[in-house]
Fold this sequence. Notes:
The protein is mainly alpha-helical.
Amino acid sequence: MSKTVKRRMSSMSYSLNKIYQRFSTTKPSTSILSAITIALAIFLFGGGVYNLIVRPYPAVYYGGHFILIYPQVSEQFIADSLVATILYAFGTIGLIMIYQSTKYAYKPRQAYMMFIVGATLLLLAYASLELVMHIWKGV
């Protein structure tokens, strides 16, 4: 090998080693990791894997109107999973707001308002999910 090729190879390995060191010692933000974990959980709970594997219909036009919610528990439309994902997101946002309200002890009015909004979102999500399961799905 010529000297220029050896020099380029040695400098390239040094550059790759430097890049590897940078990536291996990087500490990601806990907020970003938490957001990714919560988004993944909501995706899984909402039926995202089912939608990717089975590829169900978005909705069905039957009897003169659209049916967005599949009437049985065994299967689902894409609209089912969108409704579930949105409701799980509301519940998660409500829990986060309730947690954040504890950080405003020096501002009781703001803490109370955040707690009320968070509890309302959480109860709305729970009641809506129960409504979907009992009335629309017939469980």
